Amino acid sequence: MTARISKSKKAKEVEEFWDLRIYVAGETPKMQQAVKNLEKICDEHLKGRCSIEIIDLMKNPQLAAGEQILAIPTVIRKLPEPVKRLIGDLSIHEKVIVGLDIKKNS
User: Any idea where the KaiB domain is (predicted)?
Assistant: First the structure.
């Protein structure tokens, strides 16, 4: 899930690259479930065209203010623009797909 495609105009026309970041606080069952849910959605809908970065705010608490994280887990879609945010364990896949604006086989 970490392969990036070229940012050229032609590559963008073919398929977009998704840069997702999930903010968590420690290794908890809720965190593990949220990551698992996000990975499953990416595998089903983005097939190798995304990266997921897990940011543990217990290790880097200063990153919470920079991204205005108010609750965890929070997912931020950096790419494609515009930036989108979701909060929760991501267990309702339909809401995640709509919230991140993921289209089937997009």
Answer: 21-102
